[in-house]
Specification:
Blueprint lengths: L1 H12 L2 H8 L3 H24 L3 H25 L8 H23 L6 H23 L4
Length: 142
């Protein structure tokens, strides 16, 4: 129920690129589209930072966080056991791990004063990654 609330909350604030993922009926494919959008938004944030447009960086980082949240909610809504149907769960785990590495590299290259803008999104991506990994390793509680 909470995942449905998150998806509805994101529907109202979704960006133009995230609307494509939201329109996907297949929840597993929706999660993959959302993670693809997160990667694209990260690249845009990186480009905006290189141009000195910190306001746009914050916008793109918010989109990254929304995309990762949508991906997590979509996979949760499938109701599938990650150990029995690992395909999309493992792909999401790998994608979030790669995104975490990219965010950490970006953080190291940023000016010290600009780093706090990454803290929230970095924590969210890491939390989603950890939850996916635990789901794949332990499976669902009975």
């Amino acid at each position: 129920m909470a995942a449905a609330t998150v998806a509805l909350a994101l529907a109202g604030s979704g960006r133009a690129d995230l609307t494509k993922a939201m329109a996907e009926q297949n929840l597993e494919k929706r999660s993959q589209l959302a993670l693809d959008n997160a990667t694209a938004a990260y690249k845009e944030a990186r480009a905006a930072y290189d141009k000195g447009e910190n306001e746009r960086v914050v916008e793109f980082l918010k989109e990254v966080e929304e995309s990762v949240t949508l991906a997590e909610a979509s996979l949760t809504q499938t109701g599938k056991n990650p150990r029995r149907s690992p395909k999309y769960f493992k792909k999401a785990e790998l994608d979030t791990r790669e995104l975490t590495k990219r965010i950490e590299a970006f953080e190291r290259e940023m000016a010290f004063n600009d780093r706090p803008m990454l803290a929230k999104v970095k924590a969210k991506i890491q939390q989603v990654h950890d939850d996916l990994l635990v789901g794949l390793m332990e499976g669902r509680k009975k």
